[in-house]
From TrEMBL:
Residues 95-175 form the Baseplate protein J-like barrel domain. It comes from the Bacteria. Transmembrane segments: none annotated. It comes from Paenibacillus mucilaginosus 3016. InterPro entries: Barrel_Baseplate_J-like, Phage_Baseplate_Assmbl_Protein. PANTHER family: PHAGE-LIKE ELEMENT PBSX PROTEIN XKDT, PROTEIN JAYE-RELATED. This is Baseplate protein.
Length: 391
């Protein structure tokens, strides 16, 4: 039913009880509504079908709210607010081929990591006099699995007598998984601030909405003299973890106030509507890796994968990547990692009754001390960096 308290779905048991009560009202108190009686059978059949309709009605009601909508319903709410779910993207980057001088390598050649993740050459290249040439590759499948560290792509799938080796001298990046409902909800809330313009909130929200961006912080110098970090008077520096440089610069330019200087270690040129190039600067924060080792005591209500649930809860608090590849922004840049909040995150998992252990910035060294994070730093933790022992 729907009232001032919201929508409450009638269950199969509720509907059956109401049906039996109505049968007694119509046919007398001594009417047989047991499981095998004719009336009881009819009541149970109708109660089951009606319970399905009530479940559908509940889903329709919940689909109208950001906190409870799922899948496509959540996507449609996002469109109304001007924010869209981040879809999975293909990783790409440069690779170096080695082989016979003057040999032309055509697009379509396959390479892979030892783990089996495959990449395809996207541009033709002719090997130089030293037998080497630089071209680009793109992962065959979208998602974060296509990202590769330097030197990780080393196998030529298609045998070719004129090619002897392939390697990536730079990291293969920008492969991302489809944004989960939980991550999209978090970004949905943050993005509401982007409806403004020329404010810190709108700037941070616009940059945070970019694909691949995991954390954003803007530091201002409102004084008439350089600050202690070397920022010029009346300037601001934007620290951004993740995302493509060109897209970040565009978002900063579109949301900054006129006449206010940007500052940072990375420089990008952005064209305004007249075609004039404007210089935009920003910086990358220092990532502080966090490690955790926990011993949790559980009761009978804990799920069989309670250890994974605890890991995911901690990743969602700090920020990082869960075991299934979902990336969470976590805390804000410069936010300390508090042991008390680690414990609180673990207690949100059903069945967890007690938590022991510690955290640290190096694997194998743990304590219950809080970890201080500086203004230009961001804490990150991955599920693989968390040890959980269940008792």
């Amino acid at each position: 039913m729907l009232d001032s308290s919201g929508f409450k779905r009638k269950t199969y048991a509720d509907l059956l009880a109401e049906g039996e009560a109505k049968a007694r009202e119509l046919f007398g108190e001594d009417i047989n509504t047991s499981r095998m009686s004719p009336v009881g059978i009819v009541l149970r059949v109708f109660a089951w079908f009606l319970s399905v309709l009530w479940m559908v009605a509940e889903k329709v009601y919940l689909s109208a709210f950001v906190d409870t909508a799922e899948g496509v319903s959540l996507d449609r709410l996002g469109v109304q607010a001007g924010v869209r779910r981040i879809v999975d993207t293909y990783a790409s980057g440069p690779v170096e081929l080695t082989g016979t001088a003057g040999y032309m390598v055509n697009p379509g050649l396959l390479a892979q990591k030892p783990s089996g993740t495959q990449y395809v050459i996207t541009n033709a290249v002719t090997l130089g006099g030293n037998g080497k040439g630089i071209t680009t590759v793109q992962a065959v499948n979208p998602g974060s699995s296509g990202n590769a560290d330097v030197g990780e792509i080393s196998v030529l799938v298609n045998p070719d007598a004129n090619l002897t080796a392939i390697t990536n001298l730079e990291a293969i990046e920008n492969g991302a998984d489809r944004e989960s409902d939980a991550a999209f909800r978090a970004r949905f809330r943050t993005s509401r601030a982007a409806r403004g313009s020329a404010t810190l909130n709108s700037l941070q929200a616009s940059v945070a909405a970019l694909p691949g961006v995991r954390a954003v912080k803007v530091v201002e110098n409102e004084e008439e003299v350089p600050d202690s970090e070397g920022r010029p008077p009346n300037s601001f520096e934007t620290y951004v973890l993740g995302g493509e440089q060109a897209a970040i610069a565009r978002a900063i330019f579109d949301n900054k106030a006129g006449g206010i200087r940007t500052w940072g270690s990375i420089t990008q040129q952005v064209a305004d509507i007249s075609g004039t190039l404007r210089t935009i600067r920003f910086s990358r924060p220092t990532t502080v890796p966090i490690f955790a080792n926990l011993q949790v005591e559980t009761n009978s209500s804990a799920a069989s994968n309670v250890a994974d649930q605890v890991k995911d809860a901690i990743v969602q608090y700090i920020g990082g990547e869960t075991a299934d590849g979902t990336v969470y922004a976590g805390g804000t840049m410069g936010e300390d990692v508090l042991w008390a909040k680690i414990i609180r995150a673990a207690y949100t998992v059903t069945g967890v009754e007690n938590v022991h252990g510690g955290i640290g910035t190096t694997a194998g060294s743990y304590s219950t001390n809080d970890i201080g994070i500086q203004e230009q730093q961001v804490a990150q933790i991955n599920a693989a960096d968390i040890g959980v022992t269940v008792a």
